[in-house]
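=== Structure Prediction Worksheet ===
Name of assembly: unnamed complex
Input type: mixed (protein and possibly other molecules)
Chain count: two
Listed entries:
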Amino acid sequence: MTYESAISNPLAGDASTLAGTAGACSGMDNEAFAGFYERSARPLWAYLARVSSDAALADDLLQEAYIRFLTADTPRSAQIDGEVAARRYLFRIATNLLRDHWRRPRTASLDEVPERHFEIADSSAQSEARAVLGPVLLQLRPRERQLLWLAYAEGYSHREIAHITGLASASIRLLLFRARRKAARLLEPASNWRSA
Amino acid sequence: MNLRTCPREKELAGLLELGHWPDASSPDMRAHVATCASCRARVAVTQAFRSERDRALGEPRLESSGVLWWRAQLRRRNAALTRLSRPLLGAQIFAVVLALAAAGAYLGMQFRQDGTWLGDFTRALHFTALLPPAFQNTPGAGMAMVLLVAVIALAGGVVLYVASDR
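=== Predicted Assembly ===
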């Protein structure tokens, strides 16, 4: 027997042998994962697409986030709290992937990334995303979009946002306050125009 | 920076969270939001992000969950193989280093004893017999054969290692 045969072969299609090895995160089997994916993939894609302003990047990062989610060792909180925690953990993975993507060229911190780095070449899919996103959101920095999306689109608490982004819980309130004020200021002309 | 927010903002956040704003909220609350800048900002931002989220939810063309599942299993398997093969690679490196050290020690020992040992070695193994008769008495032919055999052996070893690694 070779040492390779000691590891289950996913291409052999033996689901029973995979049940023990796969779905390390949350102890999910194939069917449970399919349900979880169905419920969580679209909100996660929306988060990635709107924060990055790049639909193609969101597609790639979404897949990578789920694969990492499935191959990662389960955090204890995700085992105890079930799907809510699993979803939060998934957002955390996606946030880290986004940060890694932004860091890759040269910069050390998301806040230090120059704004022009996030300007994207005009492919048709990207233009479409840009048109939907609206000029207001594009004027926000990625970190601001990230915090505002998690707080107001996903409805996460400050503590949960801190867990997802890796920022200190105490600083979330201030960062979110500033971001909201800026967003509201940018939104104001648009809402005045609509109401006129 | 003044971080004080409106005392009614929590109540408003609850209404927004439950989707009760503005239709299912009290007239009192609606009147308050109309006059409170902080609450108005919260409503504007929440509604903008929620509607953006709703729009975005319909956009992606998602990969099948089964494909992601199998890709994750393949990655897990490859990671497990890498983990398992790490000690084997260490053992291989150790064996090569040990063999080279032994060969070096042997050669050093032979050189110290007698410089002509290599000539005797090629003669003893009759390497020149592999050459055509016309070249058998050429000076250095035995040494050339030793080098040739050594190169063939080394290349064979490398090819075998690479092939087994695949």
